[in-house]
Amino acid sequence: MFSVSRRNLCVSTLSQKRFAHDLIIRQRTGKPIIKYGAGGRSSVSGHIATVFGCTGFLGRYIVSKLARQGTQVVVPYRDEDSKRHLKVCGDLGQVVPLEFDLRNEKNIEEAVRHSDIVYNLIGRDHETRNFSFEKVHVEGAAKIARISRELGVSRFVHVSALNADKNSPSKFYRTKALGEEAVRKEFPGATIVRPSAIYGQEDRFLTRYASTKYEYILNGGRSKVRPVHVFDVALALERMFKDESTTGETYELYGPREYTFEQVLDLIDELIDNRRLRFNIPKPIALAVTKAFYLPFLLTISPEDIERLFISDKITLGAKTFEDLGIRPLSLEMNSLGVLRRFRTPKAYDQPLGYSRPIEKNKVEKKREIYTEY
């Protein structure tokens, strides 16, 4: 008798109460979402999210932000080894890997059938034999949006690119604009996100320019860019996950300051403490060289990269920004040293910003001092 009453006492003590703020009703579908726990990695937010493109640069950050708050995240992947690091982003069973092929609709259905929000981060910087810009940015995005709508997904967030324009000379930007239209047609309440050039650890912006022995300049270094930190973009995507008012809106995410490419290269040289030789290459020569020596499997510079380097970032009037999400973006000057420090020389590795290496005496002066001492 005593054991039974003691057990009932323990059960009543450990039971958790439910309050109104534990219940969320999705506006589009009306489905209830109930959370458990006090919040954090070991709790359950009640949400299930699918992140297409999760194995890419930006994808790993949004997966981490969602999983650490108790959201179950479905991570579709193509390569077995590409999703290993994502498993530890969440608690046991919260990060669910699922092999998929963008051309297989059944794979997409399996990935989104239980989700209440879907992120589409899939994109390509270069074309391959099996995946052209049209197949990935337009057809693939429209397919994911259509299947998500048919299976009753509440929210759809599509990541495009700043400068997306159907009349752009860049095929990349043209297909990105067409992809936005295709997504909005299939999923009218989709949220469109247009980030600028994203920098951070293992990026393809600062790292690409800092890793070369010589620097090349196109368009005289006059093209303008507004780089944005990957932390800011991931934070914006996370807030869209919670904020229903972002439904159907377009957001352009860019850094707080505009730079020319020449200024970006000057900053890189200063941070890595190495003044490299620069070559200004005319556009016809650059296109001819990249077409002749372009190797997709080595991620060398492609002709499409040359076209984009001649286009300056343009801000669309009326589009929402970080300010509408309550986010203050990080500056490039104060947050790029962590990315570029590994390219410094051993002597300057631990030096702070603004460090100027002392000028070394030439060999003749050194020998003269040694001879004088003797």
UniProtKB/TrEMBL annotation:
Pfam families: NAD_binding_10 (PF13460). Residues 53-236 form the NAD(P)-binding domain. Transmembrane segments: none annotated. One of its GO terms (molecular function) is protein-containing complex binding. Coiled coil: none annotated. It comes from the Eukaryota. One of its GO terms (cellular component) is mitochondrion. This is 48_t:CDS:1.
